[in-house]
TrEMBL record:
Residue intervals of the Response regulatory domain: 4-117
GO biological process: phosphorelay signal transduction system
SUPFAM superfamilies linked to this entry: CheY-like (SSF52172)
Keywords: Phosphoprotein
Protein name: Response regulator
InterPro entries: Bact_response_regulator, CheY-like_superfamily, Sig_transdc_resp-reg_receiver
């Protein structure tokens, strides 16, 4: 059974493009344009969560922190997608498992996903 990747990004075009790339690599994707889906994490049970840092009205790192501070969801692996120069500080503050620097190269995206889903 393919591993499930939850992608949270407010840019619908980027969400679809990233989803396509990830599915081409053999994964199943679940898509969300906002953080409301976090309330269903236990039900969805993704193998990995990709969260864009800038979700328009929401901050992806705050969403990540909420996931990691909740005892019922802190076991989920989270990668932050960001072009911020201070990405290492951001992921440390929100307790993310890693990051994917934007703009990213497709093979680096897939490699990061492989690395973090194989750890689970």
């Amino acid at each position: 059974m393919p591993k499930k990747i939850l992608i949270i990004d407010d840019d619908a075009d980027l969400l679809e493009a990233v989803s396509f790339l990830i599915e081409e690599a053999g994964y199943t994707t679940l898509l969300s344009v906002d953080g409301e889906i976090v309330s269903k994490l236990e039900e969805i049970n993704p193998d990995l969560i990709l969260i864009d840092q800038n979700l328009g009205s929401e901050d992806g790192t705050k969403l990540c922190k909420a996931i990691k501070e909740n005892p019922q969801t802190n076991h989920f692996s989270v990668l932050i997608l960001s072009g911020d120069e201070n990405i290492l500080e951001l992921i440390s503050a929100c307790q993310a498992n890693g990051f994917i620097k934007k703009p990213f190269v497709v093979k680096d995206l897939i490699m990061a996903i492989e690395n973090h889903t194989n750890m689970a």
